[in-house]
Design a protein that fits this description.
The complex is a heterodimer of chains A (331) and B (335).
Chain A (H helix, E strand, L loop, with lengths): L1 H19 L23 H10 L2 H18 L1 H4 L31 H36 L1 H16 L2 H20 L1 H15 L3 H14 L3 H8 L4 H9 L4 H24 L11 H9 L6 H29 L7
Helix pairs in contact in A: 2-14, 3-5, 3-14, 5-6, 5-8, 5-9, 5-12, 5-13, 7-8, 9-12, 12-13, 12-14, 13-14
Chain B lengths: L1 H28 L14 H10 L6 H25 L19 H36 L4 H15 L2 H15 L16 H38 L2 H8 L4 H39 L4 H10 L3 H29 L7
Helix pairs in contact in B: 1-11, 4-5, 4-7, 4-9, 5-7, 6-7, 6-9, 7-9, 8-9, 9-10, 9-11, 10-11
Classes of the chains: A mainly alpha (331), B mainly alpha (335).
Chain lengths: 331, 335
């Protein structure tokens, strides 16, 4: 089955190249003597940062993303209205001084709810991404490094890729929400459920990319050198292999945040996400759909936040990929 | 090639069996009770009888094998009977939905046309938009067209379909009143006018899905074109005096389409999955809507069968993509 795997690797490479196409043409010629060039110390990360800065779209996206992060993290300190506070007499107001983004059908402040919702959505995105990346890079490194584990782990990956993910996610979330919310409380239980469900179903791409890179890395001289001085496998992986596959992992992680946020809001939109009194962006959108003819802004605001965040994250991932992979720079 | 195909098909069978087992066990482990909606006034003995009638009394592995038999043996027999007028499946139990007490496949057969018209149409439209855009933006790399195209496809990629759908409904369904916001599945096309009504109600769901697909495919197309435009054979073709149109549209395009075709094949099952959301937005009662409603009702046979059909679609199209790649690209040798 190595042929299929080779082809799948080619597919991932195409995927990488395809998204890299958005980069601006900004490759500078390397200095004649890299050792002394510039006079300052050059680390890999400083290089990456310099390259990243030249990607205009990614820089704009980074600024916007930090803005969104500040909005959801610092925002509630400045705008102190409780997102769950029901003020039935002030319901359905438009944009006023007391409620800059209006209120919903129960008179809850939309600005506060957007902040609270964003917190949950981004927290879900980050946590699910961490789980997916941890699983993906562990499986990728193990199957790339240990030949004996390669075949079974890759079979497992293929199996997961063949699973119908959205139906399965729907299934998992509906079936297990009751017992989990009983044992961990409604909010925490659903959070754990959604995060682990998304994480467990989105690690496959990164596992494949990491495995491909590790396989290539294993042929290099420094690995041979490390092996010949008797480095044990554990240190081999942690010291020599992992740092070298960090860049694809980071790119996959960035793009993973975007997918996780979208998946969470899709689940919430289908009414299978967090409980109603627990706002997330997807939930806010879902709640507002019933009255979208009368109050379109309530639908559009959370939708814009979701799209903006995902767009920023995608652009950052694009920029990172360009900055980290010198082969595809300037394409 | 034939060897490879046979090997892959044979390998797909255990994969599918395993997936069906996973889905079955997941449903089995769930705490939901298919009789949860039965009124509390029904005495426990009757409930036990009902449970027995649904086949729930037996251990899980027997039920699993029974379902396998029904899915892979009884159903094909039934459909051949329908086609040829034979009586192979007489007296055999088909997969029965808990919810409607009718065979699962009959319900699915009712829903498939709605999903297929909307999803299939949107995929075709998406591909037809994506390929010219990909060609142009690769040919004029870094031109304003390319910059805008890249940005738009990035936006289209990032906007979830439930948001674009809702925005379209607000703009065109509510404010401008051009298109109906709810898809009427009982509508039948008989003459020109009813055909126009059908087109009008299909425009919005198709646009939403098509935009999302086009965003992805156009990026693949652009990357693949860029790869090929830098190749030596393009220079040769130009050097021997071929017209630019011929070079791009014949030599480059043909070679660039190879990976794109496989991507299109790989993407089809995902589109079915994504259609779950779009169907919910526009209230199309297709397969996705059926899946969600049967999940809510704990209709285990229906959920199992539907999810498994999605899995079959994924495995089949992955296989098709692999084989297509080998057929279209003579450089790829599987043996």
């Amino acid at each position: 089955m190595t042929e299929t795997e080779r082809q799948q690797r080619m597919n991932t490479e195409e995927l990488i190249e395809e998204t890299a196409g958005a980069a601006a043409a900004t490759s500078a010629l390397p200095p004649d003597e890299p050792q002394v060039a510039g006079g300052e110390t050059r680390s890999q990360w400083r290089d990456v940062w310099r390259q990243f800065r030249s990607h205009r779209g990614a820089m704009v996206a980074l600024v916007l993303f930090v803005g969104v992060l500040l909005f959801v993290s610092v925002g509630p300190w400045l705008w102190t209205i409780d997102p769950g506070y029901v003020d039935i007499r002030a319901r359905n107001t438009g944009f006023t001084a007391a409620h800059p983004l209006g209120t919903d059908q129960l008179g809850r402040d939309m600005l506060a709810r957007l902040m609270a919702g964003g917190r949950v959505s981004i927290a879900v995105g980050l946590t699910a991404m961490l789980i997916a990346i941890f699983l993906g890079s562990t499986i990728g490194v193990l199957s790339g490094y240990f030949r004996r584990l390669d075949a079974p782990l890759m079979r497992l990956t293929e199996l997961f890729l063949a699973l119908p993910l959205l139906p399965l996610l729907l299934l998992m979330v509906t079936l297990f929400r009751e017992p989990l919310s009983q044992s961990f409380g409604p909010a925490m239980g659903i959070f754990l459920l959604i995060v682990s469900a998304i994480g467990a179903t989105s690690w496959m791409q990164s596992a494949r990319i990491v495995r491909g890179d590790v396989l290539g890395l294993k042929e290099r001289e420094f690995i041979l050198a490390a092996k010949s001085i008797g480095t044990p496998p554990r240190r081999m992986i942690l010291r020599h292999v992992l740092p070298n596959v960090l860049s694809p992992i980071m790119v996959a992680a960035t793009l993973g945040i975007a997918t996780a946020i979208i998946t969470e809001s899709a689940l919430s939109f289908l009414g299978l996400g967090f409980p109603p009194d627990f706002p997330t962006w997807g939930r806010l959108l879902f709640d507002a759909v019933d009255q979208m003819a009368l109050y379109p802004s309530r639908v559009i605001l959370p939708g814009v936040f979701i799209s903006l965040t995902v767009l920023c994250v995608n652009y950052i991932g694009d920029g990172l990929r360009d900055a980290m992979d010198p082969r595809i720079r300037g394409r | 090639m034939l060897n490879f195909t046979i090997r892959r098909v044979l390998l797909a069978i255990p994969t599918l069996l395993f997936i069906s087992l996973v889905i079955f066990l997941l449903l089995e482990a769930s705490p939901g009770d298919p009789l949860g909606d039965v009124p509390l006034t029904v005495p426990p003995e009757v409930k036990e009888k009902m449970r027995e009638a649904l086949g729930l009394g037996r251990p899980w592995f027997i039920r699993y094998v029974l379902w396998l038999k029904q899915f892979f043996w009884v159903e094909p027999l039934y459909w051949t009977d329908q086609l040829l007028g034979t009586y192979f499946s007489d007296g055999m139990q088909r997969v029965i939905s808990f919810q409607s007490r009718s065979p699962v496949f009959d319900v699915i057969a009712q829903r498939v046309p709605q999903t297929l018209t909307v999803v299939g149409m949107s995929y075709i439209v998406g591909v037809m938009i994506a390929i010219p855009i990909g060609i142009l933006s690769a040919y004029k790399q870094y031109s304003w067209f390319d910059q805008i195209g890249t940005f738009v496809s990035m936006v289209g990629f990032s906007m979830p379909t439930f948001f674009t759908g809702v925005v379209l409904i607000i703009i065109f369904g509510v404010k401008l009143q051009w298109f109906p916001s709810v898809y009427d599945t009982t509508h039948e096309v008989q003459d020109w006018d009813s055909f126009l009504v059908q087109v009008r109600q299909m425009i919005m769901p198709v646009t939403v899905l098509a935009l999302y697909n086009a965003a992805q495919i156009s990026r693949f197309m652009r990357a693949s074109m860029l790869d090929n435009l830098g190749q030596d054979y393009v220079r040769t073709a130009r050097a021997k005096g071929l017209g630019e149109r011929k070079v791009v549209l014949k030599h480059v395009l043909r070679n660039s389409l190879i990976p794109v075709v496989t991507v299109i094949a790989l993407g089809l099952p995902t589109v079915f999955g994504g259609a779950i959301i779009t169907e919910q937005v526009f209230k199309v009662n297709g397969l996705g809507q059926l899946l969600i409603s049967s999940i809510h009702a704990n209709d285990i046979p229906m959920v199992l069968t539907l999810t498994f059909i999605f899995a079959i679609l994924i495995v089949t199209f992955t296989l098709i993509a692999d084989i297509l790649y080998g057929v279209l690209d003579p450089r790829i040798r599987y043996d």
